[in-house]
Design a protein that fits this description.
The chain is α+β, with helices and mostly antiparallel strands and about 70 residues long.
């Protein structure tokens, strides 16, 4: 299926599937860029709070909080 406004990118990753999925399953590092204020987020930022399962276990909880700083 194709869409009128879609983009696709293909890349070779020099890592094993286990290493790659371990990185992608680490929510703290995956969302770390959202913890700094940015123009894309209108000066806002997010913070994360993880339970003992760190969001990786079934039923695990990840709490996300955000702030918005409207630029005037």
């Amino acid at each position: 299926m194709t869409y009128a406004y879609a983009a696709q990118s293909v890349a070779d990753i020099a890592a094993s599937a286990e290493v790659l999925f371990d990185y992608l399953d680490d929510q703290a590092s995956l969302g770390s860029h959202m913890q700094k204020p940015s123009m894309m987020m209108l000066g806002g930022r997010m913070s994360y709070e993880f339970d003992e399962g760190k969001g990786r276990a079934v039923g695990s909880v990840i709490k996300m909080r955000g702030s918005l700083s409207l630029l005037t």
